[in-house]
Design brief:
Elements: H1 16-29, H2 33-47
Length: about 70
């Protein structure tokens, strides 16, 4: 179930160790793995000047995707 307008997908090959560590970080932050990937990718692209910083209207952030259980 997707609760936001994020509907473009990307895939990556990772090791099981990387996936497990990523899942633990998503749980710690209480966000889905997809939301965490999106957040980290956006931060990287902004820091590398490959993407402009998106201002949020009325200081509201996009709602997070539902938390993914392991």
């Amino acid at each position: 179930m997707i609760l936001s307008d994020r509907d473009v997908f990307i895939g990556a090959h990772v090791t099981q160790e990387q996936k497990d560590a990523f899942r633990e970080e998503a749980k710690r932050r209480r966000v889905s793995m997809s939301a965490l990937v999106s957040e980290i990718l956006e931060k990287f692209l902004i820091e590398e000047n490959l993407l402009a910083l998106r201002p949020y209207k009325n200081n509201e952030q996009e709602p997070p995707l539902p938390f993914e259980e392991a």
